[in-house]
Design goal:
homodimer, Isopropylmalate Dehydrogenase, ten-stranded mixed sheet, globular, binds 3-isopropylmalic acid, 3-isopropylmalate dehydrogenase activity (chains A, B)
């Protein structure tokens, strides 16, 4: 299995290195062979090549079994008048590799139960798997501007096609079958034409191919409420690119520890891309205090979804739960008690020790 | 002052009637003259005229001092293949009257402190005033569909012009001056062309006209997180139509009682439209149990914003706080103790009694 590492910016290199060491430990324990190659993306790629996604990176990714990404971006590249931005690299790699499905599991960790900003009685039992459409919608719609002075106008178009809706709804419905068999589709069909198409096509797919899956639809504004009010009522949720961006970030607050949440971006075939959902945290970059667990859990998703190594993935997840149960906390998890917090390397080493 | 009442559907008529009685009590106490006329909107208007916003309603609204709306919609008009929907009436009246600014105050009620789904230490002190742009953006952008079969595609365009951004940012910044002098603008400038225009124009307005107001920008996905994680850090928030729809509904969960939240929709001049933010609650319509307080608080906003009757508005808000302090609860507020809950009329009468 050849794995491309895209460390990126900020804390990216530190956390990806710990995930790599965990994968090495898995390879040793199970007798697998993983080969790693490191490529550039984001701000560092802009600095060194002028392009946030150099062609060499795309080529390496295309021929890989899977891709593990750290994070991109930082204040250094935030100039609004800049020709290109780190995020452009992320958007382009999604599109280039056809990674149309972004999977984001949102699950509480028993060991971090009181970390949630929500009341314990509300958040208890939350276990949602989001499928966010990732290569369509307003993100990749036609855009432009016109007029001058007071008349200056800018636009960008939200577009969905029948086939785009079908494939993501199918993938989400299949995942629902392996869980609690419930799927919720989120749209804004009372206002948006592409949402009406989405709703119609999703209903067809569900009726024809998944009559056994419990299916309902919720408007995006109502969903933003339900996630706070009764998050434990949802199982699998599927939605478009823009709504998914907002709702998955909202939902990411529920466990109370952004540093614990991985995500996977998958296509029809070809390599998947795995990453933590948190950003590049430039303020703590290079200090050795970043939490590597989300990236380590992303590596577990990679083993499961891109290599069908389920036992190995389970082992990583169990190891993470164990180090938490042992009381190990990076400073983001330590809450007020950051004195006793462990650093990035110590946390990674603790997970490796459990695996070995 | 001539006030147009638009009771609408579901619980609309019941709650608007209680707000009317409160306004009558105010008129008596302060020696004002309010005249009321009732007009149709939404589902009932479809049933009786075929149009969710009959011309007679538009004409009456145009010549009014202010408009008080109940709610629109219900399962009766939810058929996806229907020619028109109740919500279309709402969207059209916003546009017809040029109501480009939707104001949504989100404030905790001390008397309902433990109603929030958020932990008390997180939500404490939350007091946000949202300005949602209401007549532009993707809601009113060009839309359409093309192709057939598997190629069927639908689109809708998010559009913003310089002048649309200017007027809403100005209104929000002015409001900030009367509060804690802080304004946050929310966009998705790292992905959307109209958001980049929004960000640029907002920065210009703030630099040129409001250098005294503390100003910052936040991405919409990050804002969806902050509202859960640190809601008390925000004062005035301004954003576009779609993002505002999602974020204000998310924020509406924070006080833990949707039945307490009013909103105002204002234009450059002309009548404002005031309404509760909750829906038509068809399940409890006609039962006399709906909470009229959000509509009563909307009437208070009406007195303040459309008639400059600040003392009168303050009195209504104080009366609402007092009836809550007296322990009165409609069933939505009663939480598990709905036996002792009072009905719509009793709650309205209690507020009237405080005013008289
Ligand atoms: C960085 C940005 C372009 C990106 C997005 O909006 O998709 C990020 O928020 C994400 O969710 O991965
Ligand atoms: C009913 C619907 C069209 C409306 C909207 O999305 O604007 C509602 O959600 C609101 O926020 O007033």
């Amino acid at each position: 299995h050849s794995i491309v590492l895209l460390p990126g910016d900020g804390i990216g290199p530190e956390i990806v290195e710990q995930a790599r060491l965990v994968l090495v430990a898995i390879a040793e324990r199970f007798g697998h062979e993983f080969t790693f190659s490191s490529q550039q993306i984001g701000g560092i790629a802009i600095d060194e090549t002028g392009d946030p996604l150099p062609q060499a990176t795309v080529d390496a990714c295309r021929s890989a079994s899977a891709i593990l990404l750290g994070a991109v971006g930082g204040p250094k590249w935030d100039d609004p008048s800049a020709k290109t931005r780190p995020e452009a690299g992320l958007l382009r790699i999604r599109k280039e590799l056809g990674l149309f499905a972004n999977l984001r599991p949102i699950k509480l960790f028993d060991q971090l139960a009181d970390a949630s900003p929500l009341r314990a009685d509300i958040v208890k039992g939350t276990d949602i798997l989001f499928f966010r459409e990732l290569t369509g919608g307003i993100y990749f719609g036609e855009s432009g501007s016109s007029g001058e002075g007071e008349d200056e106008t800018a636009f960008q178009s939200m577009t969905y096609s029948r086939s785009e809706v079908k494939r993501i709804v199918r993938m989400a419905a299949q995942a629902a079958r392996g869980r609690s068999n419930r799927l919720t589709s989120v749209d804004k069909a009372n206002v948006l034409e592409p949402s009406r198409l989405w709703r119609r096509v999703a209903a067809e797919v569900m009726a024809e191919e998944f009559p056994d899956v419990n299916y309902d639809v919720v408007l995006v504004d109502a969903m933003a409420m339900h996630l706070i009010n009764r998050p434990a009522d949802f199982d699998v949720v599927v939605t478009g690119n823009m709504f998914g961006d907002i709702l998955t970030d909202e939902a990411s607050m529920l466990p109370g520890s952004l540093g614990m949440l991985p995500s996977a971006s998958l296509g029809e075939s070809g390599p998947g891309l795995y990453e933590p959902i948190h950003g590049s945290a430039p303020d703590i970059a290079g200090k050795g205090v970043a939490n590597p667990l989300a990236t380590i859990l992303a590596a577990a998703m990679m083993l499961r979804h891109s290599m069908s190594l389920n036992e190995e993935a389970d082992l990583i997840e169990a190891a993470v739960a164990e180090v938490l149960a042992d009381g190990l906390r990076t400073s983001d998890l330590a809450r007020g008690d950051s004195e006793s917090a462990v650093g990035t390397e110590a946390m990674g080493a603790a997970v490796v020790a459990k695996i070995a």
